[in-house]
Design goal:
Blueprint (H helix, E strand, L loop, with lengths): L2 E5 L3 E6 L2 E6 L5 H14 L5 E6 L8 H7 L2 H4 L2 E7 L3 H14 L5 E4 L2 H9 L3
Parallel strand pairs: 3-4, 4-5, 5-6
Antiparallel strand pairs: 1-2, 2-3
Helix pairs in contact: 1-2
Length: 124
Amino acid sequence: MTYKTLDTPFCYFELKDGIVFGAYKGNISLASAKMVVKTRLEFTEGKSYPVLVQTIDVAVVDKEARDYFSTAEANKGIKAGAIYVGSVFQSFMGNFFLRVSEPKIPARVFTDKAKAIKWLEQYK
């Protein structure tokens, strides 16, 4: 079993059983979004993984950051992405983002972490 963690001012990453778990800290600007992506790529040492991102503690993701997260650069090294949210409103916003951004990788929004992990298992 592979297991490692990394804690930064912008995010927390955990690699466990072939899935990267990430949690954003605070509001997300374009600068912090780019830092998170750079940190993830360093953390995964250039390997590709399915990723579960938790946004429960995030109040704002600015438009520039949302646009960046939909680019090929930001999705490098991600086999599939699950977005774990904590409310119906966040679920609505996450699904809206996915429809508008049309990601090039499989991506879904979940309010149930266990279901998100089960969905990601197929992309290991």
